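Good morning C.,

I know you're traveling, so I'll keep this short. The sequence:
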Amino acid sequence: MRKLRRVVLCVLVGVSAASATSAAFAEPKGKDKARVEAPVDVETAEQLYAKLDYDKANETAERVIKQRGLSHDQLVRAYRILAVTYAILDKEEQARDAFLHLLVSDPEYTIDTNLGPKVSTPFVEARGQFRSLPSKPGMEVVANVRSDGGQLRITTRDPTRIAKKVTVGYRWTSSGEYTVSTIPVGEATVEVAPATQGRTRLDFYATALDERDNAVFEAGSPQVPKSAFAEASSRPINGNGYGGDGDKRGEKAGGSILSSPVFWVIAGAIVAGGGTAAFFAFRPEEAATKASLAPQIRCGAELCK
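The tokens, ready to paste straight into the viewer:
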């Protein structure tokens, strides 16, 4: 009886161990499965494409563009892989749409002619659609700033209506946080606060975002901003960027000597006197005048002979 119990116990232990082993090597489910999958990023899609694994590269690029918060560079690179792999996999319509999205974000993109007509055909069709748009997609920022403030004028052209909003950031320092505003797509103006004393360079950027907050267009970026230098202010700048009333009174009381009318009267007299003296000092000398004088004797009304 004891031997039978031992045999049963050994069998149960063996079954439990086998179950644990099979569970350990079983395919992960749910969240655990997601942890062992290849990372969804642009670099992975590019590596798969370089290995000629077009199916997996395409799947990875599709997942990338559905993410949120992609930078402009990440979005462009993902659409490059997506468009080309669609074409290689004979998905012409999807390839044409992806190429159009790519050209909207990167108008200077050109296809590699070595890829053949399978890839170049949908690209040429997409380029034709892009060129027929009523305006060229993109954005411009014009900075008009002084040390006592100014404006950033932003123009966003998006005939495809992919962009949903625009974020604008600026700062008067070379590092640190930006002052960020959200403006609508189209033409808009952002007021720039006065600079702190001693600051003249303004760093700024503007980004047009799609519905997933991916950067469709950009003019500068938080990492690599554009810069503008402030013009001189029309009045003194205090620590907060503005000249107060006290500054104005001081400006009136202790104004420049050039604003005094007495100064200009005296200066005019000096200039006039100096000019007259210079005229006589540098005038050439004239030759001496000669005259002959002789005595004359008259005899009545006529000269005596």
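Safe travels,
E.
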